[in-house]
Amino acid sequence: MARPKTGFGTLAAIAAVPAALLAGFAWAGGWIGPARTSGGGVANALEYNAGKHPGYRRAHAKGLCFTGRFDANGAGAALSKAGIFATGSYPVIGRFSTGGGNPFATDGRNVFHAMALQLTAPDGQIWRMALDHTPIFPVATPEAFVALQRATRPDPATGKPDPAVMKAYLAKHPETKAYQDYLAKAPLPGSFANGTYYSINAFRFIDPAGGAHAVRWSFVPEAPLTELDKAKLADLPTDYLFDEIQARLAHGPARWHMIVTLAAPGDTTNNATIAWPAGRRTVEAGVLTIDRAGAEEQGACRDITFDPTILPDGVALSDDPILGARAGTYAASFRRRAAEGPGPSAVGKAPAKGK
Fold first, then answer.
1. Run of H or E residues at 221
2. Which of 58, 254, 319, 322 is most exposed by smallest CB count within 10 Å?
3. pLDDT tens for each residue of 297-320
4. Is 182 helix (H, G, I), strand (E, B) or coil?
5. Dihedrals phi, psi of 220, to nearest 5 degrees
6. Active-site residue (options: 53, 60, 113, 173)
7. Cα–Cα distance between 212 and 274 in angstroms, integer?
8. What pLDDT does 37 receive?
C-alpha cells in the first residue's frame, strides 16, 4: 500500500504544536511578552515595608492554624465539576491571620482579617483559598501592589508612612484611596468567627458540560457580627483576636455558609478593586465548620502555602493579573522560609523590640 502523502500544510501544523507549547512556557516564565513583576520582587517589597522576619511568611505573617470540614450540599455541582461540590463532607486545614508582614504586630489595628483554606476531595485533588474580610483589594495590578508597599513603609521616627510619598502614590492610585475609605467606614469584626470572608479575585467554574461561569465567592458566618471600637483599638491586648477565637472554639465550633456569586455580562473579572453590583445570582454550596485552632508549630498549616491558584479540576483562573503574581509571591516566600527555618507561632510572644 502506498504511503499517504503528507502535504506542506500538515507538516507545518505539526511543527506548530511544539512551537506553540514553547511559546506558552516562555510567556509563563516571563521570557517573552511585556515585563512583569516577579514573585521575588513582590516578596522584596513586602520585606521593605515590614522589615525582615526570618522564618515567617512575608505577608499575613501573624497567624494561627485550624482544622475543620466542608459539608457540600450538592448545589455547587451544577456550576463546577470539582469533586468538592458533590454532596459530602471534606477535610479542611486552614489559617486565620491579620494583614501585614510583622508577625509581632498588635491585633489593635484597623487592618483586614484573613482566612486561608485547603480543601481536599476524596480523589486527592486540593483546592486552596486565600480570603479577606474585605470584598475588594487595594490595587489592581502587581506593579501597583509593589508601589503600595514602598509608599506605605512606616517611618521609624513616626511609625507612619511619609505623607508626601503617600500623597504622590494616592494621586496615581485612586482605587487605593477608595479601599482606604471603605476600610475606615466598614465595621471591623470583633472576632475571626463573625467576619465574612471573600475570594476577592474572580475565578471560573467549569460545569460538567464544559460551560464556564465567572464567579466570586464568600463565606458568611452564622455568628452575629460584633464590632471592635476603632477609637479604642490601642487598648486591645496584643493577641486579642487570636486568643478570642481559641477560647470560642473551646466551647463549640464556628460555621460559615459558602455563597457563590455569578457574574452578569459586563461584570469586571480582571480588576479586584471593583465589587460586583448587588443582586447578582447566588448559590449556597455548603457549610464550613471549624472546630479546633492552635499554634502554628503544632498545626498542620505551618508549611502550607495558601496559594489561591492551586485549584481542582472544575475551577480555573480568571484574567485577573493579581492571581499569577500571588502564585509567584507565595512560592518565593515559602522558599525563603524554608531556607531560614520556619519561625514559631508569634501569637503569645512578646512583640519584637521597636515593633
1. strand 212-221
2. 319
3. 878 899 999 999 999 999 999 999
4. helix
5. -100, 125
6. 60
7. 21
8. 76
CB distance 184 to 292 below 8 Å:
no
Q: In the chain, what are the helix, strand and coil shares in percent, each to the nearest 5?
A: 30, 25, 45
Q: What is the pLDDT of residues 124-136, one digit of tens each?
A: 999 999 999 999 9
113-120 and 254-262 beta bridge pairing: unpaired
Question: Which grid coordinates belong to 149?
Answer: 508597599
> What is the model's pTM?
0.87
DSSP state of 291: E
Which helix (H) or strand (E) covers residue 92, if one does? strand 88-98
Place of cell 506553540: 20
Is residue 60 annotated as part of the catalytic site, yes or no? yes
Q: Which of 15-19, 42-46, 128-132, 330-334 has the lowest mean pLDDT?
A: 15-19
- The CATH superfamily label for domain 37-340 reads Catalase core domain (2.40.180.10)
Contact call for residues 337 and 55 (beta carbons, < 8 A):
yes
Q: What is the secondary structure of 143-182 as a DSSP string?
A: HHHHHHHHHTPBPTTTSSB-HHHHHHHHHH-HHHHHHHHH
Contacts of 130 (CB under 8 A, 6+ apart): 114, 116, 306, 307, 308, 326
pLDDT exceeds cutoff 70 at 17: no
